[in-house]
Amino acid sequence: MKQPNKIIVIGMGFVGLTLAIFLTSKKFNVIGVDTDQNKLNTLLQGSTPFYEPGLESALKSSLKKYLSFTNNLSSVDAADIVFVTVGTPPMRDGSIDLRYIKSSTKQISEWCNNNHIQPVIVYKSTILPGTFENVIKPILKSLSENTTVNPEFLREGSALQDTIHPHVIVIGGKEKPALSLKRFYQKIYEQKIPIKTTSATNAELIKYANNSFLAAKISFINTIANICQRFPDSNVDDVAEVIGLDPRIGNLFLKAGPGYGGSCFPKDVQALLSLTKNLGTGSDFLNAIHKTNKQQAEMVLKLITKQVKSLKNSNISILGLAFKENSDDIRESVSISLIEKLLTKKVNVRVHDPRAIDNAKSVFNNKVMYCTDVSDCLRSSDCAVLLTSWKQYLSLGKEFSKMRNPILIDTRRLLANKKLPVKYVGLGIGNEIVS
Ligand code: UGA
Predict the structure, then answer these.
(1) Which of 85, 128, 170, 265 to mutate for ligand 1's pocket (most ligand atoms within 8 Å of CB)?
(2) Does the domain formed by 7-198 have CATH 2.40.440.10?
(3) Model confidence over 377-400: pLDDT tens digits?
């Protein structure tokens, strides 16, 4: 591949948009492709369809430079690299829906053949082992010789920073395109980043192994948290701190909480589990990660029912709707499933979140009360439940005195070390016996 100039990114979600903006900052001509014209209109106005720190201002400066958008790949004449970053959402049975992978691959194939071009094609979407061999290759035919699988490891909430500073780059596929892509990355990253070239199948599996292992760490520490809960002088953060000092374990992803959410861990663990079933083995281990996560959400409900004797007509305040801080994403957020359960028990639910209120409105309409101010959310409340580690919540204090029954269930232990005008229940801190 000659020094690339024009780059196409298909799919303007978290991964695609962040990548497109980053590559524009590196002075490539980037064309973002997405079938959703409304989304493109939003982007053309300089707004991102989701909240991601720093991304909107980066988009605005990218639009002044080399970034453009289209909903029609055939309107572009050629490109040196085509990145595929379309979604692979979950199906009901836990397997992944490949419809966007298939449709974009067909489009790329037709477009390349019509224009007699052979760009390097790069799959960044999360795809199960065997997808390149069995699904993508038969569509691309000879173009597959120039195709690589290049999984993405960025996190929501720090997507731009993770794209600027990746911890590793994995490139799977034939030697020729893999080498071209490796050289491309070596040029754009000034700092030295480990680049691993491997088979397409390994690259596909690395992504799932990575996410499932991280999910396993969370389910493990949540298991320990629930043990700590039963011993009055025990605190999961103290246990996590010390086991995290063992370099074989490491200190990251050992924060106990209400269970992992988001568009990745729940989907990826279940997809890998579903793959093992298709392979005829199944996996008790993957099943346990998933089940433990579900039980953790139940644990939060148990903590609430322990404190609020009669849920019917009680007022409960939910602090945090997003699945994690610095994001407005509520997909698979424990807060959402918890609110659904509380509503079935006729609880009056008030919710606060610095960013995710609009997304929650599309789920709950007028079934809950939305508060832009924490004090309003806590007013006359019988129990507050903190579910997302927003920085803003660290400074809470006197706001709790607005409650009718001042009880705080802090599933992230954000306020564990503060003196508060409230009965404090920290998930994983042994002061409340929950059976
Ligand atoms: C995750 C991975 O971390 C990324 O590397 C990967 O690229 C991404 O999935 C993906 O496959 O696209 P993400 O889901 O955006 O990223 O966010 P995380 O920071 O991993 O958090 C996931 C969930 O785990 C959140 O609900 C978070 O609150 C929870 N979590 C995380 C814990 O409960 N404890 C922890 O110690 C860490």
Answers:
(1) 265
(2) no
(3) 999 999 999 999 999 999 999 999
